[in-house]
Design brief:
304 residues; alpha/beta; Spore Coat Polysaccharide Biosynthesis Protein SpsA, Chain A; 11-stranded mixed β-sheet; two-stranded antiparallel ribbon; 13 strands; globular
Length: 304
């Protein structure tokens, strides 16, 4: 069995954050969230990392992150570009926005090279338990259609400063994902959380609800499933919203589950998520990482 790869979704331009949050330091030693995730992944057993980025940030990303990570991991790059589309599809006139996280993963197919891989967001802290669980799952092999997701309780994934996107999950008694719906406007409430489709009417989401944070473990068979779903949804999506349509990874996994072959084991973690969706999240994230260092989970300078 080939050793699994860690792939990191780092192509976002940080429109809500106001800059490239992938490279924004989160401690006084210049470490960012990617540093902490890769540190946890490396001690779980991962040795190879694929950064999925855009050409526009190539130089800055490599100078600030890639050059440092090359000393610790085997590094490869994949580029998410608008014109990297399956045959028969073209970019609508005036389109600038990326095609979403499903497309980003598809752009990494060659770089991953047929190996099992974990996929994460660049701006989310997942905790060491998530990487240990993913590495164990991916290392044992199995069916090319048997995948995994690290699920988080929704109350551990919210920000005080605005709405977030979360994949709301249904999990059966055997611990497998049976459905997932991406909600793009989830807000924190006094009780827990709510989501809205129109900005006026809100549906409560209770504590203990499992959500996806784009922390997946995929076998090689996922690429054909993702491409099939991407192609199936592309034409209608572009027709309805040519400049902003995106194919998000939870929606693509939902599509794949419908084939009757794809399975997704939901791995659990006690860790609390935190990240930098908004600029206002940064002080809390810095404080949270400092507290984890104080507990001994990380050394003060992390890599030293």
């Amino acid at each position: 069995m080939q050793k699994p790869v860690l792939a990191i979704l780092a192509a976002g331009m940080g429109s809500r954050y106001g800059g490239l949050k992938q490279i924004d330091p989160m401690d006084e030693h210049g470490n960012n969230i990617i540093d902490f995730d890769i540190y946890d992944a490396k001690r779980a057993g991962f040795e190879d990392v694929v950064f999925i980025i855009k050409k526009e940030i190539d130089r800055d990303f490599k100078e600030r992150i890639g050059s440092r990570m090359e000393k610790r991991m085997n590094v490869r790059y994949a580029y998410q570009e608008l014109n990297m589309l399956p045959g028969g599809f073209s970019v609508p006139e005036g389109r600038e926005k990326p095609w979403g996280t499903t497309h980003a993963v598809l752009c990494a197919r060659e770089a991953v090279g047929g190996r099992p891989f974990a996929i994460i967001n660049a701006d989310d802290y997942y905790g060491p338990h998530a990487f240990a669980e993913l590495y164990r799952f991916l290392s044992r092999g199995g069916s090319p259609d048997a995948h995994a997701m690290v699920g988080y309780n929704i109350e551990n994934t919210l920000t005080e400063f605005g709405s977030v996107a979360r994949g709301i999950c249904l999990v059966n008694e055997k611990g497998y994902l049976t459905d997932i719906v991406e909600r793009t406007k989830v807000v924190k409430t006094d009780d827990c959380a709510s989501f809205t489709l129109d900005g006026e009417h809100f549906t409560p989401v209770p504590k203990g609800t499992v959500v996806s944070m784009n922390c997946w473990g995929f076998m090689g068979g996922i690429f054909d499933r993702l491409e099939s779903g991407f192609c199936a949804n592309f034409e209608a999506g572009v027709r309805s919203n040519p400049l902003k349509y995106e194919d998000l990874l939870p929606n693509a996994v939902r599509y794949a589950l419908g084939d009757g072959k794809t399975t997704v084991k939901v791995l659990t973690t006690p860790d609390r998520w935190f990240g930098v969706t908004y600029k206002e999240d940064k002080p809390d994230t810095i404080a949270a990482l400092k507290a984890l260092k104080a507990k001994g989970l990380y050394s003060e300078r992390l890599w030293e």
